């Protein structure tokens, strides 16, 4: 097991020299960790992964695998196992030939090849499929062949580029559990790229949220969810209301803000938030941390219902509070809630978090 | 409602009911297809049988036995033809694939220059193309003589003659089959497959050997079959480089010597070989290929970083561009040279506008242009009417024998021009049901008919390709809104097909104006087309006038090429090659 370190890695493509596709990324992925690069399309996550794989060389910065500076190594020397978004299986080879390809390159003996291919296929529940043609497999099966092909070489790191995006919803959930199980068994350091925040939350040890080529936040799923670093992360991970509220007092990791109704509440804030009385703080409030509440409550907002959506688990309500739309996920909404109703909303102060713009 | 007795009115009523369903009736496709079948049978298939009958008319199977005897011209010609074709495949393959890799996988200065002109040599009409290579590379050619003058030797240097000369022409005019097939395959190939191989530890050579080449194989095999077929049908290159022992040349020689049965035997053998290749190609194309529609990172062009390469690349690009444009340049140069003035000099010594002036002012010299335009127009009208309907029938209707209809059109494409000519001579030198009892050979009509047969597949293909892109439900929608089949067909389908049909028609017209191979066997003194005029002028050593005619053909081609490029840019690369190359 090795760690993977990216130090001040930037990538500019020749055509668009003005903006960097990846801008000054520094992260350390611990040995054996399942690490996810998460972000919307075009945020630079795939470019970052391809630099780790060696398909692009960084314009500046360094990439280390353990003690090796691999920044300018060619892809075939890096010993990474990559699973491509479209699987990239060799269409002119059988399943077994595909899986054996990396072993052949590594001059593994014929007997060992056969054994390891067999093992790898068994590991992804495809034992006995070795002689099939690639186009005789379903999408999910192809996905698992791609996984087996990357696993079988026992790579130093596994690189997974949106491997689930071509599967249907049900298969996607099954497969993500499967990938995580296999990764735990092998203990291989893994970097996973996705734009699906639910997938990232479910699978990862840690997540790096990226936007516009920059890392916005690195943290455990719990951290990025409950303590988003900035408004982008708050809105991208799950849904969030980012409220602009005047600061009435500030502490080490606490900030007091005043609600539109006039009451002040104390909310959590990151160390070194730099806010002082008189500033305006951005406060992230998740819809599920907002409930229907009495008018007398100190932590309350009042507004008119502008949209109602019943999902079964909760009722998603959008409330117009003095021109700002506030989303709330209510588990106890009365059945008769209608557009135009004036309601009071109660915030859960211990779940609110101050974010940077 | 039940038909009681089989009386005549009852029968008519039954038929009326059958057809009352209009286009929905089960009989409708057959009603539409019947005339098309008659046309294809009458002018494509039946003449082939007529040729076969002709070949065994005089002395039975003797003509065919000559192909088996060890020391005959026939056997020699067959082998020479096969050898030239195999060598052409090899040369075109090497050049075409190398060009594709260079241009599609590397980024260097001058790349776009080469790409812009890469199809030029192949787009020349067959006769003028071969003439230009003769003017450039044969032992009377500009390049060998230039090198001779430069090096002071007493013989032309690097002169290509005989079979070598034929192979030069073939390589230059047919490598685009490989180039376009390999480029399309490279472009369609999922780049991540290549990356997966690198990721698994394979080096560059190994990736080539185990991934890239195997995945290109289908494209290369199709291209090989195409080049082999085209080489086999090649006639002008052997004619100009004096290789008389090829199948096409023997057809011509026997025909001019009046031995029609022997010419027919050659034509039958060549026809059968061509059809076998056509069927092999169709069978192979039906198999899977490795293209994928994956999105994601597009294929990377590798920048040439080696400093020597960086300097050499633009230089080599300019050189390659010069070589690509040299044939047109040579024709243009000679077009302005005075007739009979150029003997042993490297370049023509005297220049004049006289050639063009003659062509446009002397009615006799202008007649071939009128002939070609008139005959091509007639042929194109036929091609459009029949070609569009066949395309519609093959793509949209279900009926027994649909595959055969498709194959019949493609046979017209696969048959070499010389064979088409011999077939028409055999079928229409006496009255025939399909010519309404008229003798056509020796009349005006035989040439437009030959052009029709040869270029029908062009219009058919481009119509069929456009039709494939039109959603059939559009026509259904029109029918649903109350339009009759005919109205829906004309206002929706034909309207949407128009760009493709027009492109095909223009192409057929250009090919008609440049046609030489069939014309030279069946023209009459009153219907001399341009290419035959060029050939005749060359014989009387009026090179300047010949080249001037050629220049006009080339200009027409470039105008049409530019125009149809604007008309339709979505056509696939391989299909484009098949249309532009002869």
UniProtKB/TrEMBL annotation, chain A:
Q: Which Pfam families match?
A: ABC_tran, TOBE_2
Q: Where is the signal peptide?
A: none
GO cellular component term of the entry, any = ATP-binding cassette (ABC) transporter complex
The reply on keyword Membrane is no
- Database matches in InterPro entries: AAA+_ATPase, ABC_SmlMolc_Importer, ABC_transporter-like_ATP-bd, ABC_transporter-like_CS, Mo/tungstate-bd_C_term_dom, NA-bd_OB-fold, P-loop_NTPase, Transp-assoc_OB_typ2
Please give the Gene Ontology molecular function terms for this protein: ABC-type transporter activity; ATP binding; ATP hydrolysis activity
Q: Is this entry keyworded ATP-binding?
A: yes
The ABC transporter domain sits at: 4-237
Sorted alphabetically, the keyword list is: ATP-binding, Nucleotide-binding, Transport
**Would you tell me the protein name for this molecule?**
ABC transporter ATP-binding protein
According to its UniProt entry, this protein's organism is Micromonospora tulbaghiae
Q: What is the lineage of its organism?
A: Bacteria, Bacillati, Actinomycetota, Actinomycetes, Micromonosporales
TrEMBL record, chain B:
Task: Look up and give the membrane topology term.
Answer: Multi-pass membrane protein
- Tell me which UniProt keywords the record has, alphabetically: Cell inner membrane, Cell membrane, Membrane, Transmembrane, Transmembrane helix, Transport
Q: Which SUPFAM superfamilies match?
A: MetI-like
Subcellular localization, as worded in the UniProt entry:
Cell inner membrane; Cell membrane
Q: Which Pfam families match?
A: BPD_transp_1
- Annotated ABC transmembrane type-1 domain residues: 78-281, 369-564
**Transmembrane segment boundaries:** 27-49, 78-102, 114-137, 157-182, 219-243, 263-284, 311-338, 373-392, 404-428, 434-453, 546-565
InterPro entries registered for this protein in UniProt:
MetI-like (IPR000515), MetI-like_sf (IPR035906)
Please provide the Gene Ontology terms (biological process) for this protein.
Answer: transmembrane transport
| PANTHER family listed in its UniProt record | INNER MEMBRANE ABC TRANSPORTER PERMEASE PROTEIN YDCV
Q: This chain belongs to which protein, by name? A: Iron ABC transporter permease
Q: Which organism is it from?
A: Micromonospora tulbaghiae
